[in-house]
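hey so i finally got around to running the thing on that chain from the lab meeting. sorry it took forever, my laptop kept dying and i had to restart like 3 times. anyway pasting the input first so we r on the same page abt which one it is
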Amino acid sequence: MDLLCLGLNHRTAPVEVRERFAVPGHQLAETSAELAKLDGVAEGLVISTCNRTEYYLAGEDAHRAFAALETRLAAEIAPDHDLGDHFYHKQRGEAARHLCRVAAGLDSMVLGETEIFGQVKAAYAAALDHGATGPVLNRVFQRAFSIGKKVRTDTAIQEGATSVAGAAVELAEKIFGKLAGCRVIVVGAGEMSRQTAQALVSRGASSVFVTNRSFERAGELAREMGGLAVRFDEWTAALADVDVVISSTSAPHTVVLPAHIQAVRRKRKYRPLFLIDIAVPRDIDAACGAIEEVYLYDIDTLEQLAEEARHRRQRQIELCESIIGAELEKANLPGV
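ok and heres what got predicted. didnt touch it at all, straight out
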C-alpha cells in the first residue's frame, strides 16, 4: 500500500484559489473519513490551513486513488477549474519527506513557523478519532511529528519571525513605523488573532480592541491583552479611531467592506489605515485597497517576509533537510 499526497499551497495557488478548497476545522474529521471511502483509498487525512490544503491517502493503486480524489474535488468544489494548474502529486518517499517538511515548518510561507506543527497534529487527531487512518498514515504521521520536533530542537530554523502572526506584525512595523502609541483592532478571537495581539502589545501598541461573533471570547482575549472588547455588530465604529486592522476570522465571506471605511473617512480626517488580512477565505474585500489612504495586505504579501527569512537561514534549511533525510532512511516506514 502506497502513501500519497495531493495538495496545493501558497507557492502553487494564490489566495483566491486556496480559499475555495479550505476545509473548516470542524469538518476535518468528516472530510478525512470521506477520503477513506473513495475508490482505491484505504486511509485518508486532510490538512487545511491558511496556506495549504493537502489530502494524504494510503491506497493499493496510486493512479486510481488520485483519480477518485480529483474527480470528487472537481465535482464538489471546482467544477469549472482545472485542478492541474495548482495541485501537486507526491507518492511514497516524496510524500513522506513533504509531510516532514510541512511539520517542521520548512514548507511554510514564514520559514520555521510554529503554528503548522499543532495544525497537523490536530488534523491527524481528528482523522484518527473518526477511524480514517490506518497502519500507513499512523506510522508516517507519528514519525513526521518526531522528525519535526527534532528539526526544531537541533537547528535554529525558528529564529526570527516564526509564525504568520509574527510576520504580520513585522509587516505592520515596516508600514507604520514603531508601534508605540499605535491603536489596533483585532477582528476574530481565535488562536491566530491571540498571537497577533500578543505580538502587537509586546511591540508597543497602546490600545487593542478585540471583536468576535462571540462577545465572551472577545472579552477573554481583550482582558488577556489589557484591551477592550467590542461587540461584533458595533466594531465598525472603532474604525474611526484605529490605525491598524488585523483580521483573521473563520467567516466564509468578507467581513470588512469598503462601505465600512467610507463611512468613517471624514471622521478619521483621511489618516492612513493599514489593513492586514491573514484569513483564508479572505476577510477583507479587495476593493478596500482602492481607497486612497488605505493600505491593504493579504496573507500572500507575507511571502516577501518569508523570502527575507529564507535568505538569512539558508544554512539552517540545508541542515534541516539533512536531518529529515537521515531520519526517514532509518524509519523504514510502510507505504514509503
